[in-house]
Each structure stands twice: as structure tokens, then as C-alpha cells.
């Protein structure tokens, strides 16, 4: 999280959503030249679960977070969702981000066309974040099953800041 006031709260469990990646054939504007692949999103899907890190930050920093997430470019939209936070033992309302045009068809993580694949760098960041955030091991293993496009992010200064561990 690239936000000066961000403070990790714990692991969040979002029910009836799944993680997915943009369809860059249907929406070419979603191809991320920085990441060199499809960006992630969450999609409504019965009987699915998404785990993620829950962060607390100052309201004054929300505008900057929206900018980082591509809201002003109409790539993502902010949404409010009820998320169960294990460390708090209750549900709270969280701000999340969803692609403005989500993929419509559910694809198996392993057998997806390149237009729906993240880059190797981006998927590594997602998996490293899941491990660092102590998401359930079964979910981390599920994330590792997503097929990536074999490409690497193109901004070497950006990549260096990420301190990536090779987990794929």
C-alpha cells in the first residue's frame, strides 16, 4: 500500500465475489503497460470468496488512493462492501476497487487466453502480498494457479521498489 497513513488492520473475507483479470480484448484500454498484462478485479460470483488485506487510512488520503487505483482514468471505480475481518471478529464496510467493465465469463485460472492473463511480475506482487498479509494458505495456493503471460513489468525503478520474492 503506497499511502503514508495506511495501517494494516488484518485479513478480510469477502463473500460472493471472485478475483479475476480484465479482458483486454474486449477492453483494450485495460491493458497495463506498466505491469505488461491484465489488471485484477473482483467480480460478483455466488459461492466464491476473495481474501485480502484490510487497511485503515486517513480520509484525507482517499483522493490519492483513488488516483493510484486509476479512478480518474475510468479504469477502476470505488465500491463499498461488507467484509468480515478476522482480527476484529466482525464485519466492517470497506472501500475496494472494481474495474468499470468487469469480465463477464468465468474462466478457469489455468486455462485462460493471454488477453485475461496478468504479467508474471503482477501475479508475483499479488502472491507476495497475500503471503505478507497472512492470507489463508489455501487461498495463496489458489492465486498461484492463475496462468500469467510470462511478461515482466517494464519500469525497472518501479520493480526495484517492490523487493519481489520469486514465489511463482
UniProtKB/TrEMBL annotation:
Active site feature: 69 (proton acceptor)
Gene3D superfamilies found in the cross-reference section: Gamma-glutamyl cyclotransferase-like (3.10.490.10)
Entry keyword set: Lyase
Binding positions (substrate): 122
One GO MF term attached to the UniProt entry: gamma-glutamylcyclotransferase activity
Matches recorded under InterPro entries: G-Glutamylcylcotransferase (IPR017939), GGCT-like (IPR013024), GGCT-like_sf (IPR036568)
EC main group: lyase
EC number(s) stated in the UniProt entry for this protein: 4.3.2.9
PANTHER family (UniProt xref): GAMMA-GLUTAMYLCYCLOTRANSFERASE (PTHR12935)
Protein name: gamma-glutamylcyclotransferase
Amino acid at each position: 500500500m503506497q499511502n503514508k497513513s495506511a495501517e494494516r488492520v488484518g485479513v478480510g473475507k469477502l463473500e460472493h465475489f471472485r478475483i479475476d483479470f480484465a479482458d483486454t480484448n474486449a477492453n483494450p484500454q485495460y491493458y497495463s503497460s506498466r505491469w505488461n498484462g491484465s489488471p485484477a478485479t473482483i467480480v460478483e460470483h455466488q459461492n466464491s470468496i476473495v481474501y485480502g488485506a484490510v487497511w485503515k487510512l486517513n480520509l484525507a488520503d482517499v483522493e490519492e488512493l483513488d488516483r493510484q487505483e486509476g479512478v480518474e482514468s475510468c479504469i477502476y471505480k470505488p465500491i463499498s462492501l461488507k467484509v468480515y475481518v478476522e482480527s476484529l471478529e466482525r464485519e466492517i464496510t470497506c472501500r475496494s476497487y472494481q474495474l468499470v467493465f468487469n469480465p463477464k465469463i468465468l474462466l478457469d485460472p489455468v486455462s485462460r487466453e493471454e488477453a485475461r492473463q496478468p504479467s508474471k511480475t503482477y501475479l508475483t506482487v499479488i502472491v507476495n502480498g497475500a503471503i505478507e498479509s497472512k492470507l489463508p494458505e489455501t487461498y495463496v495456493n489458489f492465486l498461484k494457479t492463475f496462468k500469467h503471460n510470462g511478461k515482466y513489468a517494464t519500469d525497472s525503478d518501479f520493480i526495484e521498489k517492490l523487493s519481489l520474492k520469486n514465489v511463482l
